[in-house]
Specification:
single chain, 667 residues, seven-stranded antiparallel sheet, 25 helices, globular
Length: 667
């Protein structure tokens, strides 16, 4: 007898299937058989097909995929998705603990398996999944919601109607990869090389049905703002996220000492190959949230966490040749050309050899058998020569004397190991400059990757940075090029136009000023507020800016003194590029400028982050520990050991009220 189709039955099925998914994927405790699950799912599909107007956003049929998108939208992370520092041996793990102990903190740690996948941020509103995004550069990621919805272990609806963001790792199980490759082999398709690449490739599909067929999985491991939920430890946050319906890793463990951390690492390394998914290390996190806040962050990493990387796998291959490349600064780099070999699941055919001294130190010769590994399980590295395998036909390394691109005589700067091409018009240097300008960390121009930029350079469309903003005049010519369609060219031109709106720090970094990285570019942008102010500042004044110094000041002054760079800046202004910093400009104040501040205790008038912003806005900087270099310690309620340390060293101490008084009329 066929059951009557009603909206009530549809809602009942959704609850049954969602509960079954939670029990199976999150609790690892299936409560219904596969046959029952499939029967309920087929019935739900039938109801939704006959009444599409009833379909709910949190329906488990969304896991089947079907949505197709044109491209990935950029999204901003409200709280940056920072990466972790790496440690590679026992002594470095112990040193990590010692740095924390020096802050008079005696922590408990949570140890977690480092899943070899890709990071994801999940945003929920009133318990419903509204957005999933990649890490990207930590500030800007890509919207991958359509594909993430196909992952059954990621709930479309939580157990509570809560607004929350959580973070985790998407991965492919080893067994899933084997099954997919069996099918691909039958169809004579290229095999997927490893679980991580397969997961990353699957999540970047425009058609979500492809992602659904790949049967991805996910572990959730981080709540960025636990105090907002009255959660005081990382372990509590894991328990809370599991309670909401997220899948957390059952191998996580709360330990009491660094000795127990090392025991955890040893234990998991021994069972690494037996796990159903790939791991490349162990993540170690301070458990107490207030201790995490006290330790703070560097420019790139949290100081309260690190990732221990398992020793890299090494394989042997032949060094077929050594070739030379030219970077955007003119630096010449020797590179190993290898017989292709699979290392940690990836095919490796090239590896950087850094410089002449590196090659000579390792005594590398063309024709040698060498061992290769991935440094940190990521970057291909030549470890050593197997000299016992030599047959006398190997060719000794010889450093080149002329640029491989423009034939200019190379120069070697005094007391440096690198050779440089001095020709500012060298084609290779120019292409690298153009690629850098368009890169994600700089002007972030979608569609201007390395290969396309090389094509545009070789075809004569882009020779200098300002040519990028003239590409719109060549639209018809570009469309006629093989492999370039009207739609892709339109997207590229739109991305170029949008880049004109970028904040000043992106432009400064993109210009490729020697010694000016992204962090320094941000310092300059916030300090001066606009490009004209920076250009007009003498070198001796630049040296006085916090975190700049003589070398960087000289690089900046030299860059803007060159006529070709002055002409470039003028052209970019005429094209309409923004020359202003779009964030808050630093207002130098004598009470704060060039001083180092430490915050301790509980502030009642604003958060620790708000206090830090105000200090930096007035020209000061904040650090996590008290030392002789500390200028002022600002104390809130229950200040603890940092207050005592400040008194011992005779450092100025401000109460929160005194701090507020000094901020009067400044904001």
């Amino acid at each position: 007898m066929k059951r009557e189709i009603t909206i009530e039955r549809m809602n009942e099925l959704i609850e049954i299937i969602n509960e079954a998914d939670y029990n199976y994927h999150t609790l690892d405790n299936p409560t219904i058989t596969d046959q029952e699950y499939d029967k309920y799912l087929r019935e739900l599909f039938d109801i939704e097909a006959s009444h599409p107007e009833w379909v709910r956003e949190d329906s488990p049929t969304g896991h089947a995929g079907g949505k197709v998108i044109d491209g990935f939208k950029k999204v901003s992370h409200k709280i940056p998705m920072m990466s972790l520092s790496d440690v590679f041996n026992e002594s470095e793990v112990i040193a990590f603990d010692e740095r924390i102990q020096k802050e008079h903190i005696h922590p408990k740690y949570v140890c977690e398996l480092k899943i070899d996948g890709l990071s994801v941020s999940l945003l929920y509103e009133k318990g419903k999944l509204v957005r999933a995004a990649t890490r990207g550069d930590g500030i800007i990621g890509e919207d991958i919601t359509h594909n993430v919805k196909t992952i059954k272990s990621i709930p479309l609806k939580l157990k509570e109607e809560v607004d929350i963001e959580v973070r985790g790792e998407i991965y492919m199980a080893k067994k899933t990869l084997e099954q997919i490759n069996e099918q691909r082999q039958k169809r004579k398709e290229p095999l997927l090389q490893n679980c991580r690449n397969a997961a990353a490739g699957s999540i970047r599909q425009f058609d979500s049905k492809v992602a659904a067929q790949r049967k991805l999985d996910a572990f959730i491991y981080h709540l960025p703002n636990p105090l907002d939920y009255n959660i005081t430890t990382h372990q509590e946050s894991l328990d809370y996220m599991k309670k909401l319906g997220f899948k957390t890793n059952p191998n996580n463990k709360l330990v009491n000492s660094i000795k127990e951390v090392l025991e955890f690492i040893e234990e998991k390394a021994s069972i690494r190959k037996e796990l159903p998914y790939d791991i490349d290390g162990v993540v170690i996190k301070v458990n107490n949230i207030k201790e995490q806040q006290s330790l703070g962050f560097t420019a790139k990493y949290p100081k309260w966490a690190t990732a221990y990387k398992f020793p890299a796998e090494e394989v042997l291959t032949k060094l077929k040749d050594i070739i030379f490349t030219v970077g955007r600064t003119g630096q010449i780099t020797p590179n190993a050309v290898l017989e292709p070999v699979i290392v940690m699941g990836s095919t490796i055919s090239r590896a950087t050899l850094h410089n002449e001294d590196y090659v000579k130190m390792k005594d590398l010769r063309i024709g040698d058998i060498v061992s290769i590994r991935k440094a940190g399980d990521v970057i291909p590295e030549v470890v050593e020569v197997k000299k016992e395998r030599r047959n006398g036909k190997e060719l000794p390394f010889q450093m080149i004397e002329k640029c491989p691109m423009c034939n200019s005589n190379l120069i070697k700067k005094e007391e440096q190991v690198d050779y440089y091409c001095p020709n500012n018009s060298c084609p290779a240097r120019n292409v690298e400059k153009l690629i850098h300008f368009s890169s994600r960390g700089a002007m972030n121009i979608d569609g201007l990757g390395e290969g396309i930029m090389e094509d545009l350079y070789n075809f004569g469309f882009v020779k200098t940075i300002d040519d990028i903003y003239l590409l719109k005049n060549h639209k018809n010519d570009l469309i006629e090029l093989e492999g370039y369609g009207e739609k892709s060219i339109e997207k590229l031109l739109n991305s170029i136009e949008k880049s004109k709106e970028n904040s000043l720090e992106r432009l400064l970094f993109g210009l490729g000023i020697s010694n000016v990285g992204s962090k320094t570019a941000k310092v300059l942008a916030t300090y001066f507020g606009n490009l004209d102010q920076l250009v007009a500042t003498p070198e001796e004044q630049l040296q006085k800016i916090p975190d700049i110094g003589q070398i960087i000041a000289t690089s900046i002054a030299t860059f803007f003194q060159k006529e070709e760079n002055q002409i470039l800046i003028q052209k970019l202004k005429e094209f309409g590029l923004n020359m202003q910093y779009l964030g808050k400009k630093i207002e130098i104040d004598e009470e704060f400028a060039n001083k180092s501040f430490v915050l301790t205790g509980t502030l009642t008038k604003f958060s620790r982050e708000e206090a830090k912003e105000k200090i930096e806005h007035l020209g000061g900087k904040t650090t996590g520990s008290v030392s002789k270099k500390t200028s002022v310690v600002i104390v809130g309620d229950s200040p603890g050991s940092k207050y005592e340390r400040a008194k011992e060293l005779g450092i100025a101490v401000w109460t929160e009220d005194e701090f507020l008084d000094k901020l009067k009329d400044k904001f």
